[in-house]
Each structure stands twice: as structure tokens, then as C-alpha cells.
Amino acid sequence: MDYVTPNVFDNSFYHLLLKGDGLLNSDQELYSSMLGRETKKLVVKYAHDPAAFFQQFSYSMVKMGNITNPDSFVNGEIRTDCRFVNA
User: Which of 7, 32, 68, 86 has the fewest CB atoms lying closer than 10 Å?
Assistant: First the structure.
């Protein structure tokens, strides 16, 4: 989510974080926080290498799509109500 290209799916979100201009404080923490050493590396990588960002995004979407695949999802549950563990 970024205000520079709100209708385009691109890596400008990461460019904004490098400038200290993240839209949400929690977004900016990915780059600016002392605790975010690992995420800071990813912010720099994705800002400078859009192909790496798109590749990781597609991998992550496939992985998330497999959450409900019984062949790959054995430990855990999809909650019917996020506030409670399923009965």
C-alpha cells in the first residue's frame, strides 16, 4: 500500500520505506527499526530489484494458496472465527 502508485502493483512501497516515508508506522518499522535487521535487508533488496520482489511475491502466493491443501497442510487449522480455536 503506497500513495505514489496506489493503482499499480509495483515495488514503490519499498522505495518509500528507504526514504522514511512509509504510509503506516508499522510499515516503516520494516526498514527503520533496530529490531528489523533482517527485514531491512529485504526492503533494500526489493527496492533495488523489482524482479526479486515479484518472484518472492509469486512464491508466497502459491505457498499461501496451499494452506488449505490437505496434502501440504497437516499441522494447524483455518479458524471459522479468528477469536476462537475451532471445536
Answer: 7
Residue ranges of the annotated binding site are 2, 5, 10
The string of pLDDT tens digits covering residues 13-55 is: 999 999 999 999 999 998 988 877 889 999 999 999 999 999 9
Spell out the residues 6+ positions from residue 31 whose beta carbon is closer than 8 angstroms to its own: 17, 18, 20, 22, 39, 40, 43, 44
Domains assigned to the chain = 1-87 (1.10.420.10)
Q: Which residues are annotated as a binding site for Ca(2+)?
A: 2, 5, 10
